[in-house]
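Continuing the series of single-chain predictions for the mutant panel. This is the parent chain; the variants come on the following pages.
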Amino acid sequence: MRTLNRFLLLSLFAIAPMAVMAADDAPTPEPDVTIRTEGDNVIQEYRQNGFLYAIKVTPKGAPPYFLVRADGSDANFIRSDQPDMLIPSWKIFEWK
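Parent structure:
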């Protein structure tokens, strides 16, 4: 019986650090919000586990608007209140 208790105690000490490491890697339920200013605009960046998924822009003297990801790419954001707004993307030069 004494060896069984020692074994259980030793296994508890061995497993405890793994549980702490697993808790550190768990996803956070609340987003990280970074607030910065550019000129007269206040910009709030919303990240979940390091992934930037939305940007809130509050211009001075104007209503705020959100930029959300249009697809999975890094820099393709659209306004959430005007999702059909066309943004021109012309190819000026192409090198082959």
